[in-house]
Amino acid sequence: MNKMKLKSMLEEYYREDLGDGDLSSQVLFTKGDEGSFSFLMKERGIFCGRDVIEIGFLLFNPSIIVQVLADDGEVVESGQRIAEIRGPMADLLQAERVVLNLIQRMSGIATETYRAVEQVKGSGVRICDTRKTTPGLRMLEKYAVRTGGGFNHRNGLYDAVMLKDNHISFSGSITEAVKRVKSQIGHMVKVEVEIETKDQLIEAIESGADVIMFDNCSPRSIQEWISLVPPHIMTEASGGITREHLNEYAATGVHYISLGYLTHSVKSLDISARVGIRKGV
To answer: Given this structure, which CATH class describes domain 3-116+267-278?
Structure first.
């Protein structure tokens, strides 16, 4: 994870939440009021967000003492303490919600990814994410997918070429789209082509695609067509795939299965903060 980028993100999140100041803390606490947090798991799952806790509180106030008790990727149980934080009570409360929101979401994504990876274990297929991420949170959400044992698809529009139906329609054909792209990009950039029919598959292979995505294709269709794909071309299944049908797609022989739900509709893991306070003199 890019820690410099994380710091900038956290600063922006704090500005959004604090505005001109925390009215509650300004009224209730004096400068000498010290306190502590225990972050507790309220359900079993995969923890993710160690850097968010450590950087988040220290960025807000360098005097805060942070002890994270779990590692990213660790299976944590309900009731388990994952962090202890001590410092000025007003600062703890002002930083707490932003940090808690992020680690709950990241841990939820890591947990759901882990479940998907475990479900297809032994099949040889890799589980990956999509660009269906929360605006502003992509780096954290994709990190959470990796923490859960998954793999990242392209990080954005800038690091790989994916030719979808609209690109192909505009270019006139798969062949023309691939030709135009490959005449302009460097040799380190892969070209993925989205197909939905057997004819499109054959054209994508003949055009020189590096990766072929079976988009919204049934497991049966993929199994019938995948033998046509040469070994040097990677294959991917995508398009509304859920855990209910995950094993059927894993059995088709594709190299990757991309799951949008890992980031666009995942449930955050339930984590709470238990607070203690010591009044200043």
So the answer is: alpha beta
